[in-house]
Amino acid sequence: MPDVDIAIARAEERPILANMMQFYVHDFSEHWAGQETGELETDGRFFDYPLDPYWRDPGHVPLLFRIGGHLAGFALINDHSHSDRPLERNMAEFFVVRKHRRGGVGTAAVHGVFSLYPGLWEAAVARRNVSALAFWRAAVRSHPQVSEIEEDDFTTDHWNGPILRFRIGPS
Ligand SMILES: CC(C)(COP(=O)(O)OP(=O)(O)OC[C@H]1O[C@@H](n2cnc3c(N)ncnc32)[C@H](O)[C@@H]1OP(=O)(O)O)[C@@H](O)C(=O)NCCC(=O)NCCS
27: Cβ below 6 Å to ligand 1? Predict the structure, then answer.
């Protein structure tokens, strides 16, 4: 497993997340082909992701991943349920920089995050993000303390795509 350092992003580190979010949105824009959303602004940047709640609201956690001191990705955790079912934690966003992909960094990072934040989790995967679904299925199933794994497909006003629900820690 790669050695991934996981740290809560301090308020003064918000610009780091805002910068990396540009890369994340660029990756996601691939899935928005044919839709209005996801165009570049006139300044050549994507829209600013709403990060304020991550240093303001309970249940919101911004995390930065580093490998050997270098930024390698991030996770945003909140308590929003895409399934409208009760939960404790939602993986709102999760990102590994391209240089470090397919080497187990995402798995190591998310296993670390799950262990730091046990409870009843949800991960909603956009229908077109097929590679992320493969990642989540593998990463969730391989966590040593996972139980109660469920996967359902949603086509509602709230979500279009699969949602994984699972518990980390004692059931
Ligand atoms: C999804 C993402 C986090 C995966 O990170 P990663 O560090 O490459 O993941 P890992 O190396 O730990 O991959 C573990 C397993 O997940 C699956 N997987 C990961 N990326 C995949 C891809 N592009 N296609 C198919 N399967 C993939 C594979 O089973 C992989 O195991 P393998 O490499 O032995 O085949 C990364 O590609 C990313 O940041 N993507 C853009 C943002 C995004 O889609 N985030 C998820 C939002 S729901």
Answer: yes
